[in-house]
Amino acid sequence: MNRSSSAPGFLRVAVFAPLRQTFHYLPCPTPWAWQPGQRVRVPFGKAQRLGIVLGLDPVPDRDPAQLKAVLEVLDPEPLLPASLHALLHFAAQYYHHPVGEIWATALPVLLRKGLMPFPPETCWGLSDAGRAQLQAGLKRAPRQQQALAFLAAQAGSTPESALPAAWGKGWKSLRDTCAAKGWICAQAPESRAPLQIPPSPFALNPDQTGAVAAIQAAQGFAPFLLDGVTGSGKTAVYLEVIAPLLAQDRQALVLVPDISLTPQLLQRFAARFGASQVAALHSGLTDIQRLAIWSRARRGELAVIIGTRSALFTPLARPGILIIDEEHDSSLKQQDGFRYSARDLAIVRARLENVPVVLGSATPSLESLHNARQGRFRHLILPRRAGNASLPQVGLIDLRRQALQGGLSQTLIKALRETLARGEQALLFINRRGYAPAILCHECGWVANCRRCSAPMTLHQGVRRLRCHHCGADHAIPAQCGNPLCGSPQLIPLGQGTEQVESVLRALPDLEVPIQRIDRDAVRRKGELEAALEEIQQGAPRILVGTQMLAKGHHFPQVTLVGIINADQGLFSADFRGQERLLAQVLQVAGRAGRAERPGQVLIQTHHPDHPLMQALRALDYGAHAEVLLTERELTGLPPFSALALLHAEAQQPPQTLEFLHDAARCLHHPELRAQGPLPAPMERRAGHYRAQLWLHAPRRETLAQALGPWLQAIEKLPSARRVRWTLDVDPVELL
DNA sequence: AGCACGCCGACT
DNA sequence: GTCGGCGTGCTC
Predict the structure, then answer these.
(1) How many angstroms separate the CA atoms of A557 and A424, rounded?
(2) Distance from C-alpha of A155 to C-alpha of A150, rounded to nearest angstrom
(3) Which of A568, A603, A629 is the last residue of a domain?
(4) Which member of A82, A201, A446, A687 has the greatest number of CB atoms within 10 A?
């Protein structure tokens, strides 16, 4: 049907630009059956941009004579299924972010930038003969050798449009030669045959079996909170829930917070379902590889897709289930640009796809616990560790009036020695990298602060530098106090970081085991973390000193002692989520202890052993303290008992942010919305910019989402808005 | 976000 | 007399 000649309407396009509006274009020059979800190249101001056709409107919002025409249509069909159109539409409304940018972030980079025509196009892969030939080597034909090696490295089907760049001139004849010899084959976009999955090789315990049965019984959309202590075997539950779906040719999408734990998870899925059925979208992939996985998922050729936050937008031909592992983790919330929560959007997507969604965690977010209590989520509990592993013993070390050695108490050092003497491994957790979080003048108390941030600089002893962890500033260590009236040369480190703990341990007599530091400084390059983890798996006695990095999801069977060096940070945090975060973090680290046969021990150093949170940690009781925190939130009217959004502003001068936020507060007229502030941001100055924010409270998330729209329109017109950089964060998790 | 236009200071 | 500062406005 030639729809352009009969002028059925005007194309509504979401241009890839940070603008909260759509634009109309004439549907020339191609006669086309226009469908929402196709990419188009359009004239935009002086330049050209890509955008997405959102729909066809009979009447444009301005004089049709002023409209420009679409320059090019890039795709023969919509890129995403209708469910994802609806999801992105919802996200635009809920987060009040420009639709064009939302689409841009949802698409693989190569499609976002228009560097790749959209599949279905021919994809090439190695045949068995090609693999054999590559093994044997092609000494007389180096180009063919290189060509085969490239496809092998791409692992999977490589779109033909990637070949010119990879193979260079004459790629066509190279392709035809290799194809003629049967070394490479064009992979037909066919659906895979339903898989026959062997029964589970591991016996599940009754808790796990119950959880699997509950999830499998779900018909269509059903949200579950899988609340299982560390080591309770949540992954095994995921595997068994997915297995029968694959036999029905359906697909599973698994989101994890951090790339560092994808390899381990990928291995387990690949071992269960076959490597060719499972793909992980991790940071080590090239853009071409990502696009290949995306296309294969879209065509239904992959059974399981594992990925981080952005993988939520992977199209699935036949979705069967969505799984969000470590659902409490804040990295599921994007912290810049389009600030979405992959966990919250996953629930929306599951509803749109009409499939079950499982949120798994040992330390569920208060939001999810609340949803479970309200009956919105089905609460599945795994209270015991799987296999023979038992939960670790937890002890609190009262630091008050104790002599400390670089932050370590004698009790902890003694336990460390005993652990190593038994031939076991120990893990010390301290969530600060560097040697010390500040340096201080011993004479007058002056602290070396960052010039551009309201924060002290961190001492890095190894490289002998002072660094700001907020803006990246890097200076030599001053020789003397910066106070002009003092100038004393006596500058002393204040507090502890991983580097200091490492050096204190090295200085201990008769402690002849390797000490391995794991933080962003120690394992800077790609693969270094994996290499370190590999070595740890070997099992020889050693001490691991590390930050967050060490805590997430890793399995260290030989670690029997976990020491938390300073649990008090966050106890009296200004952030209302401080306690929830501290509780989750310490319990996640504690969960690394004794995951195999040998029992584990956790020692927590604190100056506040009587604090209820410390008592909860000692009892390893997340649930009870989470209830306490929930009650507090209810009394204070904070999320999840209300909805929160944050208007954040940054400018060169403090008055500019305040003027803007005051103006913004004045524009607010909604009866159910309450503005609080302007308040200085937790870090008042960062990278030379002054920062302040306005908090917006509403009784319900729906009210908030709905009221924010007109308010933002008013804000965008404010003259003061132009003098600041402002962002809106709906459901903020980090308060910036 | 880009990219124009536009009106005021220190320079060849 | 111009080069260029960034305030203001627009992008179908």
Answers:
(1) 10
(2) 9
(3) A629
(4) A446
A624 φ, ψ (degrees, to nearest 5): -65, -45
The answer on A413 and A507 residing in a single domain is yes
Quote the percentage of chain A above a pLDDT of 70.
95
Q: In chain A, count of helices (H) and strands (E)?
A: 22, 32
DSSP character at residue A733: S
- Residue A450 assigned ligand-binding role: yes
- How many Å from the CA of A474 to C1' of B12? 39
Q: Of A157-166, A192-201, A210-219, A422-431, where does the model show the most confidence? A: A210-219
DSSP code per residue over A407-438: TEEHHHHHHHHHHHHTT-EEEEE-S--SSBSE
- Is A507 within a domain? yes
Q: Do A41 and A139 sit in the same domain of this protein? A: no
Asked if residue A527 has pLDDT above 50, the reply is yes
In 10 A of CB A147, how many CB atoms? Answer: 26
Beta-carbon contacts of residue A259 (< 8 Å; ≥ 6 apart): A282, A283, A284, A308
Whether A418 shows a pLDDT value over 70: the answer reads yes
Cβ-contact A327, A365 below 8 angstroms: yes
Task: Give the nucleotide at minimum CA-to-C1' distance from A17.
Answer: B1
Whether A447 is in a domain gets the answer: no
In this complex, the nucleotide whose C1' atom is nearest to the CA atom of residue A19 is B1
The residue out of A604, A629, A654 marking a domain boundary is A629
Positions on chain C within 7 A of a protein C-beta: 7-12
Tell me the per-residue pLDDT of A290-342, one tens digit each, with 9 for 90 and over.
998 999 999 898 999 999 999 999 999 999 999 999 999 999 999 999 999 99
Q: Is A468 annotated as a binding residue?
A: yes
Residue entry with tokens 């040697």: A435
- Cα separation, A654 vs A658, in Å, equals 7
- How many CB atoms lie under 10 A from the CB of residue A509? 5
Q: Is residue A268 located within the same domain as residue A376? A: yes
Query: Measured in angstroms, what separates residue A93's CA from nucleotide C12's C1'?
Result: 21
Distance of C1' in B9 from CA in A723, Å: 22
A304, A251 in Cβ contact below 8 A?
A: yes
Domain assignment of residue A289, given as a range: 220-234+247-382
Residue A477 has pLDDT above 70, yes or no: yes
Q: Are residues A713 and A580 in the same domain?
A: no
Nucleotide with smallest C1' distance to residue A22 CA: C12
CA A435/CA A406 separation, integer angstroms: 10
DSSP helix/strand/coil, A565: coil
Query: Is A12 within 8 Å of A24 (Cβ atoms)?
Result: yes
Q: Which residues touch strand C (CB under 7 A)?
A: A 17, 19, 21, 23-25, 42-45, 60-62, 66-68, 719, 722-723
